[in-house]
Amino acid sequence: MIRRLLVADRGETARRVFATCRLVGIETVAVYSDADSDAPHVAEADYAVHLDGGTAAVYLRGDLIITAAQRTGANAIHPGNGLLAEDADFAAAVADAGMIWVGAPAKTLGVLRSKRETKELVAEARVPVLPTFTEPGKVSGYPVLIKPDTGSGGAGMRVVRDAATLAEAIASTRREAGCDVFCEPYLDEVRHIEIPILADEHGSVVPFGERECSVQRRYQQIIEETPSPAVDPALREELCRAAIIAVRAIGYVGAGAVEFLLDAEGDFWFLELTPTLQAEHAVTECVSGYDLVRLQLLVAEGGVLPMPGPPPIRGHAIEVRVCAEDPAYAWLPASGTLHRFAVPDVAGAFRPLPQPGLRLDAGVEDGSVIGVHPDPTLAKLIAWAPTRQEAARMLASALTRTQLHGVATNRDLLVRVLRHHSFRTGDVDTGFLDRRPEVFAPLLSAVDAVRISCLAAALAGAAARRATATVLGSLPSGWRNVPSGSQTAVYDGPAGPVEVGYRMNRHGELAGWWVRAVDPEELDLAGLGQAPVVDDHPETVVVAAGDERVVLDVNGIRLTFNVHRVGEVSYVDSPEGSVALRELSRFPLPAPEAAEGSLIAPLPGAVRRVLVVPGQRVRAGELLLTLEAMKLEHPVHAPSAGVVASLPVHPGAEVDTGELLAVLDPE
Q: What are the pLDDT digits (tens) for 447-482?
């Protein structure tokens, strides 16, 4: 029996396992790096052990984790849903240490280590698979997808559409992945469908319906749902039967998912068996009613699964992954302090819901510091409703009203996808985002919506100053003896600097207001605020203006704006959407000018590879180095031909946004 369990993961994954452990009476142990010393998962565990090291890499140190378990008296280890869950050597080491391993057996993980060999085993059991090519000359037909033989999360995968570039692409992928690679046909407009399964050591294999995981970026899922809008009962039975055959062919025991590609004609092909309780398991828990972590622990203890077959599907569930990244800028990871994280109307967290509603599994809270080393996922928000349409509407509404301050996220993209006609009709596939650029627009995109939010920020700022005024604090904000001027503020907004001006009458009422774009070169001049007032705005009445809440009547429609100010930044949330406005100084200090040809870091991260040396001549577009942040690699290319004059970074170096990476002298 499991008495005390160490979870070798962090964030919402660890919190999810801890939640079930509390229900069934199992004591918990957390591990943490330097960066996670104040993380929520550390505070929630009964015991916590520091792993020496400042980055997320320490979570992959199996030796440190086993030592931590021994020090705390844990008799079991749960690997989470990261790379350790797929590590056969770590699983064997846990068993050798006399502890219970909550995962697939080491022998099975050894089989699954090679994707190509796994496909061969499954093919022998007569489950459909795509053909595999290991040599460029044997490829028949394009496009093809190059895949590393080991690893997960879509890392290293790339599409090749002609024979001329295949050999170099294979060699490059092999160098980057550090393992053998293979090719298989790349199918356009297919769905990614997975069958979650649980298998015990007594021979029972239970599938839990299917999950639709087709909305992806960089081969990684961001929206999952169950059931799939493309799967009818007959196809579901066929997919589940194939999953059971694959599981038995591999000899799998534990929680996992059998992944397939599905085309429009209903044909499907096995992709891989993922040996973890996957991040999207919450949607399956909603529609099945089962606590999958509890069943996973039961199997690890040698128990028998309590259900004879697949449980019935109750309603529809959709999950989104809220990630610290900027979709509009090549999915660049974001870092910083999460000043506020508030999701409205949440019914429960980290466990199955008793009835339809919103579930939140989050690894962060107000004040959490988001670094560049962990996975970018901040939280998973799940909507469970009687129908798919209701679940999508509920989820989009909750995301729109969520307050996310301090770190760029993919929230607006998620809302636009959930509200997109194609998604609502179930017309999704793995290329959904590539073919629909409109979903990358911010929610707060209308000109009038941005302008009114700027006015709300200015009014809230004035109210805050009046609340702390030591002289004439009883006068209304902006009060003047004569209407000779306007109150003004300058913000750096979504589309650049803007100036906000407004006039108040003797009764403290809004007499006029305006917002205009400002040339950045004007920001060091004293002439701002002297522009003639042009009241080309909607008719607006200030109903209430506090330092955190502003209510405006705009053309007879009342809107409430919540304003959260942190330093010089005002975060404005309203039914129109959210915007961050940084107040600018009228007389900013001059910034140091970068040398001509300087290449600066577009994001914080670690230098992974440096492919050039000082003095080397490079071509335009040539890869100079790569940065790694949040498990993704970001290339830095030469913007033009030239000679590398300076290279102040080296592999393993940590850099911040704006830090100098190289200097290129143009030819």
A: 788 889 999 999 999 899 888 766 655 555 555 555
Residue 331 token pair = 């999915």
Exposure string (b/e) for 529-554, b if CB count within 10 Å is 16 or more?
A: eeeeeeeebeebebeebebeebbbeb
Cβ-based neighbours of 165, under 8 Å, separated by 6 or more? none
Residue 566 has pLDDT above 50, yes or no: yes
AA identity, residue 525: L
Q: Are 514 and 537 in contact (CB under 8 A)?
A: yes
Q: At what angle do helices 388-400 and 411-419 cross, to 10 degrees?
A: 150
Whole-number Å distance between alpha carbons of 306 and 290: 10
Of 603, 616, 622, the residue nearest 647 (C-alpha):
616
Question: How far from chain centre, in Å, is Cα 147?
Answer: 23
pLDDT at 394 > cutoff 80: yes
R_g of the chain computed on alpha carbons? 28
Average the pLDDT over each of 236-240, 427-431, 536-540, 556-560 and give the range with the smallest value.
536-540
Q: Which two tokens stand for residue 537?
A: 């705005």
Q: Which H/E stretch holds residue 618?
A: strand 617-618
What is the rounded average pLDDT of the residues 122-138? 90
Residues 583-601: pLDDT tens digits? 987 666 665 666 778 888 8
User: Secondary structure of 375-404 in the HEC alphabet?
Assistant: CCEEEEEEEEECCHHHHHHHHHHHHHCCEE
- In the predicted model, what is the mean pLDDT of residues 369-389? 91
To the nearest 10°, the Cα dihedral for 96, 101, 103, 106? 10
- Helix, strand or coil for residue 241? helix
Query: CB-based contacts of 57: which residues, under 8 Å, 6+ apart?
Result: 373
From 28-37, 128-137, 269-278, 390-399, the region with the lowest mean pLDDT: 128-137
Quote the pLDDT of residue 480: 57
**Nearest-angstrom CA–CA distance, 17 and 206:** 21
Secondary structure of 248-317 as H, E, C letters: HHHCCCEEEEEEEEECCCCCEEEEEEECCCCCCHHHHHHHHCCCHHHHHHHHHCCCCCCCCCCCCCCCEE
Q: Are strands 605-610 and 623-629 parallel, antiparallel or unpaired?
A: antiparallel
Q: Identify residue 497 by its one-letter amino acid code.
A: P
Which of 59, 53, 54, 103 is closest to 78 using CA atoms?
A: 103
> In whole angstroms, what separates CA 542 from the centre of its chain?
38
CB atoms within 10 A of CB 431: 14
What is residue 348's DSSP assignment?
B
Calpha distance 436→429 (Å, rounded):
12
How far CA 359 is from CA of 203, 248, 364, 383, in Å, comes to 33, 33, 15, 6
- Average pLDDT (509-517) is 84
* Residue of 500, 510, 454 whose CA lies nearest to 478: 510
pTM of the model: 0.89
Residue 623 burial (10 A CB sphere; 0-12, 13-18, 19+): middle
Here the tokens at position 36 are 């996670």
